Each structure stands twice: as C-alpha cells, then as structure tokens.
Amino acid sequence: MFVTASGRAVNAFALVLKFRAQGVNKVEYGAVRRPAGNEVSPLWEWLPATIIRVRRGGLPQKNIQLHRKPSPTEAFYHCCTGTDMDLFDSHCHLDDTSYSGDRETVFERARAAGVSRMMTIGVTLVTSRTAVDLAKTHPGVYASVGVHPHDAQECSDAVLASLVSLSRNPEVRAWGEIGLDFNRMYSPRDEQEKWFVQQLETAAELGLPLIFHERDSGGRFLELLRTCLPPAGAAVIHCFSGNRAELTSYLNLGYYIGITGIVTLKERGESLRRLIPQIPADQLVVETDAPYLTPEPERRRHRRNEPAFVRSVLIKIAEVRGEDPDELGRRVFDNTCRLYRIEALV
User: Fold this and answer.
1) 56: Cβ–Cβ under 8 A, 6 or more apart, which residues?
2) Is the per-residue pLDDT at 25 higher than 60?
C-alpha cells in the first residue's frame, strides 16, 4: 500500500495487475517532483515521489503518482496473491552451492515476497558453520546446527563438541537436521542410530528445539525418539510425508509438522493433501527445503527452489484446508516463532 502526494492510499501492485489484465504491455517508472502545497502524510514525507506511466501501444494511458517504486518482484508476488502475508521459511539450506552466484539476490527476492524470517539448516559441521555465518550477516535469518543421517558416518565426539560450541551463538535457534533415513542409506543404519541418540541427548542438555528428518525407518525413529523425548512444542517433523498413524503420533507428542512444496504437486502430494486438514493450525509450519522440492507453479519455470516460494506452499495449504491464507499465514508465522523461541525478536 502506497500513499499519493495528495495523501490517498493506493495499492500500486493491484493497479499494475489491473492494467496488465487490460492489455497493457509496458509499465514504466520515473522520478517526479512533489508539487508544493500538497498534503502528505508525515509518515511518507521523507520518501521520494515516483510516477507510474502505463503504456498501451506505446502511448501513455494513465499516470499515478506514488512514493515508492515497487520492484518487479514485489509487483509479481503481490499481484499473484493479492495479500501482504508475513512469512517464515522454517527450513531451507541457504549454504547450498547452487546459490553461490546469486545468494544476495535470493535474499532480496525472499524479502520482496514477504518472507521476513528464514531458518537455514546445518547438516554437517561445515554447513552448520556456514549457516551461522549467514545468520550473523543477514537480519531475520537464523541457523540450526547438527549432523544429518546421510552424514552420520562422518560424525564423531569431536564433531559434536564443535557443534556444541557453535550452538552458543545467539543466531542458533535449533539443533538439526537429525534423524533416520533408511531409504537411501548413505550412512549405515547403526551409525545413523548411534548419532541420532547422541544428538538427542546433546540438544536436551542445551535446551534447543529439534528439527527431525525421518524417512522409511519403519517405526524405529519413534522408538529411539522415546529414549530421549523432547517436550511438546520443542520439535518439528521436517518435510512430513508419512501416513496417518505417524502423523497422529507426532501430533500427540505435541510436535510441529513441517509442510513443503510436495503439497502442491498433483500426484506426489495427493496423500499429503488428504492429511493436511487433520493438522491443528497451531502445530503447522511451512518450509521450502530449498534448494530442493520446488513447489508449483514455480517448478514450471525454476528447477532450483528458494525461500520466496514458500508463499506458494502456504497458499496451497490454505486452499486445501478451506481457510483464509492471510489468517493462516499469521498463525503459521507465530507457530514458527514459538518453535524457535524467537517471539521477543519478531
């Protein structure tokens, strides 16, 4: 929402969408002087005025004076959704090498899409260090530390000691991603189980909430989890894709359920969509798992996922649940802040 030089509120994004729907093929922005004598809201007095020149067939059709130029990304996301949701990507991997060439632009696109908070995940000692570095240099970005089950065979007491030291940084708000993955078996089962339990105990000593990864463990994940059970509200099941019985077990333990772009996929997300209405609104969080699991409709144009796309996940969940996306977005944002204990920082 913007304020004109006369003080009238104008939704620039909605106007841009309206003009484009009418066949406008070009929208230009240019600086103009604010005419003397116009009444301007004090909140906006310091901002430069801009003007939108809408062209159809090369001829100016409409001029609208605004106090800030919306970026193309802002216009795209606002026009596509019609909402100003404040979003929290609860799980992404911003250290990934796929972002090496444009990481700062990825952050900019996330902000423009309304993603004001991001949790970047550690899966090894190296990536945990990078996650902390990114969180230190980017406001609204937080970090987790831990060893993923895929990398369990590389874990050691020395690695855990280094992670404990790293976790003392205020930017670290969780331990994980940890758990069991008996699907790909990149690490032997005994190594996965050993370091899963040890990390459960370490996180308990530190009082950090946990981020869990579980795939095809056949009940073993829950069995080991109960040996050092985190309290209700102190864990999230990342990228949930299990069955109804597993969902019920996690919900009964009081854990949050992380939903990714899988929910937007026609075939792969069908079973997940059937379970979405069963998740209480106060136990739901959204995530991208970027750069993986790109949601629809972005996956039609982008192979790589990024935090900006978490909006599509939220909107699909709201559609499946028959709820207002703005209201659900507020609930989910608050849930994520509670999970990572950052209420006072919001």
Assistant:
1) 22, 23, 24, 25
2) no
At residue 215's C-alpha, the angle toward residues 209 and 217, to 5°, is 100
Nearest Cα to Cα of residue 31 among 49, 7, 8, 57: 49
141: closest CA among 165, 162, 172, 112?
A: 172
Euclidean distance between CA atoms 295 and 312, whole angstroms: 7
Of the three residues 22, 46, 70, the one that is the final residue of a domain is 70
Residues 177 and 313 in one domain: yes
308 and 329 in a single domain? The answer is: yes
CATH of the domain at 138: 3.20.20.140
Q: Are 292 and 307 in contact (CB under 8 A)?
A: no
- Going by pLDDT thresholds of 50, 70 and 90, the confidence category of residue 186 is very high
| pLDDT confidence bin for 165, thresholds 50/70/90 | very high
Instruction: List C-alpha distances in Å: 33 to 16, 44, 45, 122, 228.
Output: 22, 14, 12, 49, 65
240-274 pLDDT, tens digit per residue, is: 999 999 999 999 999 999 999 999 999 999 999 99
**CB-side exposure of 273: number of CA atoms within 13 Å?**
18
Cα–Cα distance for residue pair 247/256, rounded to 1 Å = 10
Q: Are residues 30 and 86 in the same domain?
A: no
Tell me which residue range forms the domain holding 132. Answer: 75-345
Global pTM value: 0.78
Give how many domains the chain has, as a whole number: 2
Confidence (pLDDT) at 265? 97
pLDDT at position 343: 73
Q: Are residues 39 and 98 in the same domain?
A: no
